[in-house]
UniProtKB/TrEMBL annotation:
Keyword Protein transport belongs to the record: yes
Protein purpose: Needed for flagellar regrowth and assembly.
Keywords: Bacterial flagellum biogenesis, Bacterial flagellum protein export, Cell projection, Cilium, Flagellum, Protein transport, Transport
Protein known as: Flagellar assembly protein FliH
Organism in which the protein naturally occurs: Halanaerobium saccharolyticum
InterPro entries: Flagellar_FliH/T3SS_HrpE, T3SS_Stator/FliH
Biased composition (Basic residues): 41-51
Amino acid sequence: MSKVIKASQVTGKFKINQNPKTLSFKNNSDQKEAQSDSEKKKSRAIKKQKKILSQAEKDAQKIIKEAEKKAEAVIEKAEAEKEKILVEKDEIYKQTKSKARKEGLAEAEAEIEKKEKQLTDLISSFEEEFAREKSRIRKDVIELAVKIASIVIDVKLETEHDMINNIISDMLRKVDDNHRDIVVRVHPQLLPYIEENRFYQHINQKNIEFVSDPELRKGDCVVETNLGGKEGSLDHKLDLIKNELLKEVEQHD
């Protein structure tokens, strides 16, 4: 039974070639019309990308502003409580100082120490609350960044078609000489832009077929052979990146 090798390339430096795979047309009129349609699609994709990025920036600013307000509220509350306790401490000190003359200095000092401990404990609790809020803000920003990355990749694949060739190339590097009957599946919209000839260097002229699969995302690539392999997807890759970033946040908290 054929198993599946599936992965998406979301990192790396690629030289982007926006020229799609060359197709033959019956006449110049048909070719010009096809080129015009391609330019229109590209223009719409670029507008879509700008709109998505603009909205993502607004969402990020909103999250940051809300977090700043919450943090300021925590600090203001802590400062207010601190001032309140300090006032109470001074008042108690005055009262207990007079009382100490009659009942002894030790009892007065104990009362003052009690209030000082209350103040210390309160400040500590607010510091812990602030640290938790700070950690939550960082995690929210990471979630948003990964979401934006996923959207940007989808949009870029509509305009920078050579990205799918780089993804396929990376996948075929994992196919050794024991693999046969190779089938590469990609999203239907990206199938016309696959440069088939460039991939034979990875498979030593073995049989290879490129087919469309509407169930795949644009950043996904599935390589099927007669042997086993690994499974992956664009979402899986982004989840791995997100988890690594969240680990970094937890280690620094």
